Amino acid sequence: MYENRMIDYIAPCENGSEIGIRGKRRTVHGISPTEIVESLCLEEGASLRGALDAGKHYLGNLYKVPVRFSGSGCYLFPTGGIKDRETVWVFFEQVKDVTKGPYANTVIGFYDGLSITVPIGKRSLTDKLALCRKYRNLAQSSAHLADLLEQEVR
Fold it and tell me: How far, in Å, CA of 108 to CA of 6, rounded?
């Protein structure tokens, strides 16, 4: 499909999904953002449910936990519930900045120059970014511990 590290976001659009990738917007017809994320998870060797359960393992039994692609080291999060038609999936590593948008929206700027307005407040979005950062740190610490234990066994 797509190189995960190049994707900024996956958003719903009238005909399916819009993918922000490498500074361009691509439309994928007839498939929802969550279905695309499920497909990306399967390419990484786990189901979306399994990836969400892993996030809950690291972060506690939270609602709307980030998803980690262990193979590529990417983290992404939903701006809303995974069954919500307005939910946008955002790739954490690609976010350059966030600014308050009109009404209760937030504008996310990406390193490749794209931006998208999402239906979530700036504070909530900032909290989601912090949660991704925490997840990444916990996963890295856990991997380091596993490496140390493996060295002890040898």
Answer: 16
56, two tokens: 């809950």
Using only C-alpha atoms, the chain has a radius of gyration, in whole angstroms, of: 16
Cα–Cα distance between 17 and 37 in angstroms, integer? 11
Which residues does residue 115 pair with via DSSP β-bridges, in sequence order? 109
Q: With beta carbons less than 8 A apart as the criterion, state whether 129 and 98 touch.
A: yes
Residue 138 structural domain:
4-153
The strand pairing partners of 67, in sequence order, are 76
pTM (predicted TM-score): 0.84
Mean pLDDT of 9-17: 95
Rounded Cα distance, 102 and 141, in Å: 39
User: Six-digit token pair at 51?
Assistant: 């990836």
Q: Which residue has the higher pLDDT, 80 or 71?
A: 80
pLDDT digits (tens, 9 = 90+) for 100-136: 998 889 999 999 999 999 999 999 999 999 989 988 8
Query: What total number of domains does the chain contain?
Result: 1
